[in-house]
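Hey, resending since the last one bounced:
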Amino acid sequence: MARTVVFTRSHCIGYVGIMKSDDLLTIDPEILGGTPVFKGTRVPVKTLFDYLEDNYTLEEFLGCFPSVTREMACRILERSETALLAKSQG
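The structure tokens again:
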């Protein structure tokens, strides 16, 4: 059964635009064995982090994976930052 991950924060930072937080990613055993992917794609979310860790730009990632929108990638990064900061403050 497909499962969509929902984040709790619902607002965006200026340039990111408006997108519902449940439109970010999907975890489905039928898609890449349940690896979290950007919703509506087969692009693993981890690939974004791998690209950034390897010093590629966001633009380079988006050029290689055109099915992922800038808005989706920015929201994933924003949510990840929020989750990491919340854990460090708790």
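The first strand starts at residue 3 and ends at 4.

Sorry for the duplicate.
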